Amino acid sequence: MKKVILSAILMVVLSLSFVSCRETADKAKDSTENAVEAMDDAVNAAGEAVENAGEAVDGAIDAADEAVEEVKDAAGEAVDKVKEAGEEIKDATNDAADQLKKTAEDVKDAVKE
User: H-helix or E-strand containing 105?
Assistant: First the structure.
């Protein structure tokens, strides 16, 4: 009878240990799956961050290109205005010189008379 009781106790202990091992294996499997999902989420978030950063860089490059074009256009307009002002000054100086010559000739003619 002693052997029967010991055998029964041994069977109970073994069955509990197998059930416990299965539960542990299931928990480990669930933990692994959760870790994989978390890593996938992290990879996706990192990918989105890289895409957003790329879009931001593209936007900054476009804005810089537009700013350069605007500065170039403004500089070209300024150069054109300076050229026009130079031409106007040149014309005004020539007109003044012509007027001075005419006045000098008028004075010369007046002195001769």
Answer: helix 2-112
